[in-house]
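seq:
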Amino acid sequence: MSIDWDAIVKTYDVRGLVGSQLTPKVVEALAAGFVDELGAFGKEVIVGHDMRDSSPEFADAFASGAQARGANVVSIGLCSTDESYFASGVLDAPAAMFTASHNPASYNGIKFSRAGARGISLETGLASIRDRAKVYLETGVEEVEKPGSYRDLHILIQYASYLRELVSLAAIRPLKVVVDAGNGMGGMTVPAVLGTASDLERLPLEIIPMYFELDGTFPNHEANPLDPKNLVDLQKVVVEHGADLGLAFDGDADRCFVVDELGQPVTPSAVAAIVARREIAREKSSNPGAPVTVLHNLLTSRVVEEVIRADGAKPVKTRVGHSLIKDEMAATNAIFGGEHSAHYYFRDFWGADNGMLAAMHVLAEFGSQELPLSQFAKQYNPYFLSGEINSTVSDVQAAKARVQSAFTDRADFDEFDGITAQSKSADAGSWWWFNVRSSNTEPLLRLNVEASTEADMIKIRDEALALIQLKAD
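struct:
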């Protein structure tokens, strides 16, 4: 069969339609390319998978290809993506995680890690894995003289224990928490980490579960909390039960979203600011006088940078991107990194992202005071954000040029990641900024706007959006 490799090998992972783009043979070829590229002959390679119907077969195909090239496969079975990072970190071994995250049931994919949960992107090895796999798919995977071994490893209890060590919730006030797992892997990890499924000490949390049944067909809603329609059920149940807050996980449970007791979303930027504050305080306590660095991507709210500076740490702005931020975490020795998309990265978690860990930090900080979450979170959400608005455009460059031309007199531009406009005038503390970025894989432009007033945010948002969506005559 003919495979469009560029269509399935994305910037940071592999993603495609099951059957037409991703098949066991394609996966086996990718496994062989992965082992060869990473020099994993005679070494351990971790393989884990989510609850999608196709995931076990793909994990088996990957194990077959990896063993054929001499890698010793360590199968961790059903797991969340951050569990695969944990295994990669603890065993100091490369890993392959089968998931398509929040994509619909017809998709699957692979998230690769180098040893120690370090990321792999097109620029740092994924392109070479793809090119090697192309050859293996055509010629077949050649088995080495001594194929690798295979063993099963159950790490959920160890994973849960490690997170409990990083964030203690034993002394917080009792909280009623609704959790929407979206039929994804949070249905397995939440009871283990926040409940008693791992035989750990009971926490002062009453968990009200929603859609904890693992089901890769996603019968209730897409496991994509970034889309507001997928939070509706959670928001309703939080209010109905008089809960203190709600948590929503995506399909592979590496991202976590928070809603307050009124059912209103707490922005990922507010979560990033809360976690940054806690991590800065912890680092200063354990390493007095040491420099402290925190990363945030350019699309997080201005409040994130303000909190980092106010607490005596150095903020470093990054471009958007999973593997890129992992690399920056290592290069800067940052203690924490936050993205607008609800990815949160921790130095104590090998620089990898972990939605569960971010949720635990929010529970710890919020549960250590008496205000309701809607009031507590206000200090971390003082400005007005548009959220990410996607527009399908026929000519991406022309649309960006229209926007830049219209705002030239009012803004200073940079092209650090897409185009970012910062308002030139800041009369009486009034300011705004917006960013326009292209999608890596689709003819989309993504718009994010923030302003000091709601009126300015709406005005700039609507003007920029009209320019982006302007139809050519």
